[in-house]
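Deviations from the work plan: none for this task. Representative record:
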Amino acid sequence: MAEPLLEVRDLKVSFRTEDGIVRAVDGISFTLDEGEVLGIVGESGSGKSVTMMTVMRLITDPNVIYQGSIIYKGRDLMGLSRDAMREVRGEEIAMIFQDPMTSLNPVYTVGWQIEEQLNEHNDLKKGQARRRAMELLAQVGIPKPEQRIDDYPHQFSGGMRQRVMIALALSCNPDLLIADEPTTALDVTIQAQILELIKNLKREFGSAVVLITHDLGVVADVADRILVMYAGRIVEEGNKEQIFYDPQHPYTWGLLGSIARLDRPRARRLTAIAGQPPSLINRPQGCSFRTRCPQAFDRCRAEDPQLTAKVGDGHLDACHLSVEDKRERRDKTINPELAETA
Amino acid sequence: MASPSGPLLQAEHVIKYFPIKRGIVIQREVARVHAVDDVSLEVQRGETLGLVGESGCGKSTLGRSFVRLFPLTGGRIFFDGQDISTLSRRGMRPLRRELQIIFQDPYASLNPRKRVGQIVGAPLAIHGIGDRRERKRQVQELLEKVGLSPEHYNRYPHEFSGGQRQRIGVARALALRPKLVIADEPVSALDVSIQAQVINLLADLQEDFELTYVFIAHDLGVVRHVSDRIAVMYLGKIVELSPAEELYERPIMPYTEALLSAVPIPDPRESAARERIVLEGDVPSPINPPSGCRFHPRCRYATEVCTQLEPPLVDYGNGHLAACHHPLNVDKETLARATVDQRRTPAKADESAKPTQPAQQAR
Amino acid sequence: MLAFIVRRLLWMALVLFAISVLVFLIFFATPGVDPARQMAGRNPSAETIKSIKHEFGLDRSLPVRYGLMMKHMFITRDLISYGSHTRVIPEITSAAPVTLSLVFGAAIIWIVFSILFGVAAAVLRGTVFDPLLMILALIGISIPVFWLGEVVNLITQSRLHDSFLFSWVPPLGYTPLTQDPFMWFKQLIFPWLTLSVLYIGFYARVLRANLIETESEDYIRTARAKGLSERRVLFRHTLRTSMITFVSLFGLDFAVLVGGGALLTEVVFGLPGVGLLTFNSLTALDLPVIMTTVIYAAFFITLASALVDLVYAWLDPRVRLA
């Protein structure tokens, strides 16, 4: 097998606070192949953003503590000097963020901001950067780029600003694009446009994509493989088919059940996950999810489940339930009404 | 109750324009944002009416005009048979008890310097209900009802997560036992898993308190789940109004079809199989809305007539109304039987322009 | 742009008019204030007072007197002081360069040093230098300028004047720039430093707070994600947006000082500037001078606020006129 593009090995990220040490990411490992689209799904505070911010080494909090390694193209990013890391950032790994309203600097034109990025990483002649910026704006579907290039961010709508962010991210042809909740702040119609755009650009630019979201529906169409994160750990990992048609972890079931689905008859109630995510300072003993899990039993309290492959190639989960139990209980949990009628 | 049989809330040709002013010494109006442009609908007792549309379609403005957060530009609103559109602030006060609103942003809509007990109890105190102890008892009872604990009485909003804050907002809205609650994007800022909790909570409370909801959201999946009827808005107009299931199975207006197809489906095979209609571009500016049917610049079925005539709201039976020159999912007989809804059709629309042909092949 | 200028000019005229009417009313319509009696000296006869009243037009109605004063001030420019019986306009025009010299010099010093300290404190956040710098700034803000000025004078003019350190310091006073630039500089250097201490402290603290606030903005994270150097992120992104508050504060402070707000510094260092003039006219209730200095100050302040708005729009495209 060819070497993966990115390999995260036993990454731990914690923050020292007045109340204690917050273990935001608590020992996660995964790989990402070239050109692959990986979805990372979980609630706020599950550590999905912190993980990818760490890959970019964008966390500026002085109270952060890291452990583990992040191997990108054979080099450990954690060991790189500041300047070497700057070469990677923006040029090889690019990132777009959740809120397009605040992610662009309000005092510079969008053209200026794209050109700044181009000039930082390339030796371009005058006018070349501007031409390239114009091309990029056209590529991400901004109408009349020759006029819009000198506009300021506030003159664009939310969807258009996210397109500008994508143009910015793609300007140096990165091998990896990290999209952190790129559509959460947008209307559904605009979300559909942006997802379509990411798919098309992936084809065109061939970069690998990490798509972070709290909504499993968003990754169903785009992702090849999916990581489900809970309280700083990966609780399930598998390809798209495995996660959607044979989900193993009760947390994944909960995420699936929470969605008001248009493709199914209307349910009387949604299967919400009860309660709140646990404190990352005092993690519950045993399985972190057991406090919210309707399936929890004695072993869940006593023993921390490990992420292992139980049902098939590359499909890992961290749950004590036996595969048979899971398959029996699953449908009742995700959609009790549908299970009854079946 | 004054008229227990009629609708709880009735809007007749409601118009709300926001003026844009400019001038050196004397400010003059240079343009208007057509936020809500001649909307008529009613909310029945005990139902949930969903209002959907993209940002800037006027759904929030319409919701807020129901509780008279600002004066209307035109039209009338009846609450429980009483015309509230011209009432003064003072005249509105007794009605504020019965009309409540829940806002979108659970972070911005709670005063960070007040304790939960004060926030939830404020409406009670303002209306002078009970003494201090009685109010505290009622607030704690409410907190329990919305799934928080009575011990949360003395905490501050920042100690809660987004979902819990939205519960506090719900408790505050319910403190006065209102009849009608306007829920303005109550779950849009929350994680999907937390959205489900809040949606279930709202459904439980509807039963317990016999509430009527107007549920505003941009996500048709969520709206379909909670609503009995759904009104689809586009640039200040109602373009389709229908029972929830019917709208989902048989959208008539092409805009509704596109909205439905934009909702992501958590099923890779179905998602890949389904035809996705990606709407081009953004919603046009509500300052200068397009002529004729306002959706025509983005509509794949649009023809000459759409650019010129504003379509009337046509009743296709079964409470399903739509304003479109090229209706989808309608056969010849239904179309022949359909009639123009004189009462709800906007005044400027051409009442004679009832569609004669179902939609042609998409261009 | 044209509309903006026209609007601002109209606004300025309105403000100046309102202020002049207000000042006029305060000093003339206040019971018990009688300029004629004041001018007449000790134990005047009723005759004298009457003749003075007539000479200065004080026996006319209030609106007429206001009109006359404005006419003398703006049209014939021969307004006469009640106290010294000299013309007021030349007094102001000779005092203004002194104040302008003082304030310009101090402003350059305070801009340079407050940016230096503010940026240093923000960059060194988390080390001991940040709180150290901020305490220093707080001390600068807290020291009364007259006390600091006196101490500086004590050291440079008297105690250590004969040592090699300060023997070059000339006696207090003002020499016009056109007459002897070197002397101008030597006489003003200590007043500049003294006046700027307060502002360095204040502006450094404001800038530090703004920098730290901007630092947490999403677009700063974007700038880093682009792979820009820390230096570029700081100067082109963080500092650039933080300057918006800085600039608007600066415009108004500068105008207030030019308008006579540097009074204490002028008194301590014996500089015959606008502040001193205003102070003297106030103690003598010399209305023509008060009126002129107030209008002069108000002119600068409204002018500055218009300029601030222009610079603000240049710095922040979001508020640019559509």
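Chain C touches chain B through four residues (CB under 8 Å).
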